[in-house]
Amino acid sequence: MKLHKNVDAIVEDVINKHKKNIASGKKGNGAFGGEDLVDVLLRLMESGELKIPITNDNIKAIMIVSILKLIGKISKYF
Q: What is the mean pLDDT of residues 60-77?
């Protein structure tokens, strides 16, 4: 349970930093200055364009699954 809380806090912090950057007018949080996955999901969440609303918990879940898939792909090289 402690691991879950730690991961949740880290991912929530990433989302909050992205929200802060967006609010300050900074364009893109990606490695090369463009939008990354979190930026796109936050934009969709704020736009309300989707029939099913996106929440912070949805974004966190997508981020965690993406990280786990990446770890799975990388681990085959070790």
A: 89
